[in-house]
Design brief:
alpha+beta, globular
């Protein structure tokens, strides 16, 4: 399986389709997707775990939302808060990213 995951990573064929490939090349995009996958949902201030610059992360979250990978809901009690979570499509991408991450960190040497 490891070799197939690496091939998928190299070609991008199974990680995402072409319409999402460009957004995954943006700095911090995979980090934010994986954070959302691990945490299930986060508020905007938690994005600092990925990047300290709030404006960068807010723009990235908007872009991921436009691509249909992230969904945002607004909660207004006790104060206005934006809650971010992965869409079904975003979860599928995150699962592939996790496979790649696991493959890389396992140190497997079966690369063709």
């Amino acid at each position: 399986m490891g070799t197939q995951v690496l091939r998928d990573y190299q070609t991008g064929s199974q990680v995402c389709d072409e319409e999402h490939e460009s957004v995954l090349r943006l700095p911090h995009s995979s980090g934010l997707i994986l954070l959302l996958y691990d945490e299930k949902e986060i508020i905007a201030s938690q994005m600092k775990k990925v990047c300290k610059n709030y404006n960068t992360m807010a723009a990235l979250a908007r872009r991921l939302e436009e691509e249909g990978l992230v969904e945002v809901v607004m909660r207004s009690s006790p104060r206005v808060t934006h809650i971010y979570f992965l869409s079904d499509k975003g979860r599928k991408v995150a699962e592939k990213l996790k496979e790649i991450e696991n493959y890389i960190y396992k140190g497997e040497n079966d690369v063709p």
